[in-house]
Amino acid sequence: MPKSRIRKKDEFTPPPAKQATSVNLGSGRSWVAPLMLALFLIGLAWIVVFYVTTGDLPVKSLGNWNIVVGFGFIAAGFVVSTQWK
User: What is the pTM of this model?
Assistant: First the structure.
């Protein structure tokens, strides 16, 4: 019976080492996170103050629209959060 040809295996060469890439966190958008959190907290505080004072504060003439103003601040916080990278 004829002898089969022996195939030579290629030598293992490890892949090249990956270069570490630096991430620049201060790319000019450092204002986004503090503003977002501030808007969330202002909106929450507005609604809580309205309920705790039974409608006398923050703005008595707005009445129940104070809730809409509070949620407006919270919605603005979500809009600002889209700019966060």
Answer: 0.65
